[in-house]
Fold:
Amino acid sequence: MDLRYHTESMEQLCLSPLACRSVDSRGRARPEEHCQVRTSFQRDRDRIIHSKSFRRLKHKTQVFIIPEGDHYRTRLTHTLEVAQIARTVARALRLNEDLTEAIALGHDLGHTPFGHAGEQALDEVVTGGFKHNRQSLRVVEELEGPGGLNLTWEVRDGILNHTGPVTPITLEGQVVKIADRVAYINHDIDDALRGDILELNQLPEHCLNLLGREHSKRINNMIMDLIHSNQGRQSIQMSSGVQRATDDLRNFLFRHVYIGSEAKREEQKARHVVQYLFRHLHDNPTMMPLEYQRRADKIGMERAVCDYIAGMTDRYAIAQFEKLFIPRAFSIPE
Structure:
């Protein structure tokens, strides 16, 4: 018996009736032979982990732009925290962990350099705007490898709808959508406390009383609430009290961390870097790698330049900016 058949049989026996089983996937845009060992969702997870876009996340901003310290979150560590939280919830609810993990690992592949500052900068200059969730879908459908990663429909749906008004079709995708918020609210508080942007006593007292005064307790309480509130439910959501406290914490972070704090002091410079690069490369496409020049002939210059910049890490974007706009010393041989 192929190992894949054994895993699929275990899914039939062990998963909740509400879970998305591998054999029930709507499939891929381009049909493929099945793997003898891995289910379709396990294969998707592996393709994401081995992609170049996933590796680049380690040098992309979460909140602190180029922080002076080794312990602040990056886009990659955020992604891993989302995957851990989402898998814990999925396992407790007997949902498909492999599908959940694949969506979580791929949800931010399209994020720009400099976090949401970079996203907003591109959104202002690209016709039709720019959203990182749509770009993440673009990465897995077109930009990675020859013709994209050819992921299953369920993983692509979860990646596209992990943020925004549309709810993912699968419960696994819905788990990731909430796990994303649980992760970033808590680790952004942790980073802000570490960076002396906040003090613990500044956080809303009613949120601390309900969720906990320590980082691990807040995460644990949110996870336990998700588990207890969604047994046998056909949609995933927090209890009303925990949802209100979570929203209050998020609003607090927008007021005190995400907008105008010391953590964002370099944000305007980052926006200038992204927009200057966009305009210059749009007018001078030969400065881009050959693959993007060729892509411009097929999809248009603006889209190709956007794809190139969105894929940059923070340090690569800065290096390109310095190369293009910062004068270099002229050395005279002795």
Residues 268-325 form one domain. The two ends are 74 Å apart (CA to CA). The longest helix spans residues 171-194.
